[in-house]
Amino acid sequence: TTGSASLGVAGAAEHPAVTAQGAALSVRHLVKQYDNASAPVLNDISFDVPAGQVFVILGPSGSGKSTLLRTIAGLEPIQGGEITMGGELLRQAQSAGKLRSASASDSTKVGMVFQSYDLFPNKTVLGNIMLAPVLVQKRDKASVQAEALRLLERVGLADRKDAWPHELSGGQRQRVAICRALIEHPQVMLFDEVTAALDPEMVREVLDVILELANSGQTMLIVTHEMAFARAVADHVVLLANGSIVEESDHPQEFFDHPHTERAQQFLATFT
Ligand code: ADP
Ligand code: MG
Predict the structure, then answer these.
(1) Span from the CA of 71 to the centroid of ligand 2 (angstroms)
(2) How much is the pLDDT for 118?
(3) Ligand 1, residues 38, 67, 68, 115: which to mutate, most atoms within 8 A of Cβ?
(4) Burial letters 132-146, b for 16+ CB under 10 A, else e
(5) 6 phi/psi in degrees, rounded to 5
(6) 17 vs 208, more confident
(7) The model's pTM
(8) CB 46 within 8 A of CB 40
(9) In terms of CB atoms within 10 Å, which end of the chain has fewer, N or C?
(10) How many angstroms separate the alpha carbon of residue 27 from the centre of ligand 2?
């Protein structure tokens, strides 16, 4: 993927230009403040993710990475700014602080995989993957099953289709969680430290699935502490600290080898 991913703090008036260039996801002046908190967790965040781009978000614990992904996924209301997808308004601040989802077909636009394995314990692998497309999207059961099997094949788990979540390793559960998100055909996939809770020997099998997905052209935002993986997969990298983007680059190799800001130098030094 190519092009300048970020327009910095471009104004809302620039939307048409942005979408004409094919931004899959556009975040404008995003402000997020939790109830009872004295300060915002995300403070005027703006960026664009062009279609097909792998957008990696780095940052220390507590910097707001999960909150950012959760606002994009519609799991948290926002207090300022807006998020558009394919030029369509997806989320917007509401004065009452209530969650607003602008589009009815919302759930199919964003897929998210979390750090913790959140499979339904009382459903088999196949049952987990088929649940949303059959019940929510009302798709044909036979074709959903065929697609679920293809996805399981792709992540190397075709032989575990009838297993229960408790029978799977952590790495297998995360791969099922990825299939469960993919089957809804999200325009953008969000990954929040999906290997952080895994035993080291299972990290690779999950990262390989995400790499393959990246190479297939899936637009995605990835939060990770796996620096070698981040370097290998990123088209664009941002460093978040205290709810602001402190450095970003369309040249990840340069970012990792020669970070410009002291904050980024400090952050990267903790991984060497
Ligand atoms: P990261 O994922 O980068 O570690 P988070 O987005 O989880 O950061 O958290 C950012 C900040 O928001 C932290 O200070 C955290 O304590 C706070 N926070 C996260 N979730 C909530 C919540 N539900 N209510 C109040 N504060 C929260
Ligand atoms: Mg987090």
Answers:
(1) 13
(2) 84
(3) 67
(4) bbbeeeebeeeebbe
(5) -115, 135
(6) 208
(7) 0.89
(8) no
(9) C
(10) 19
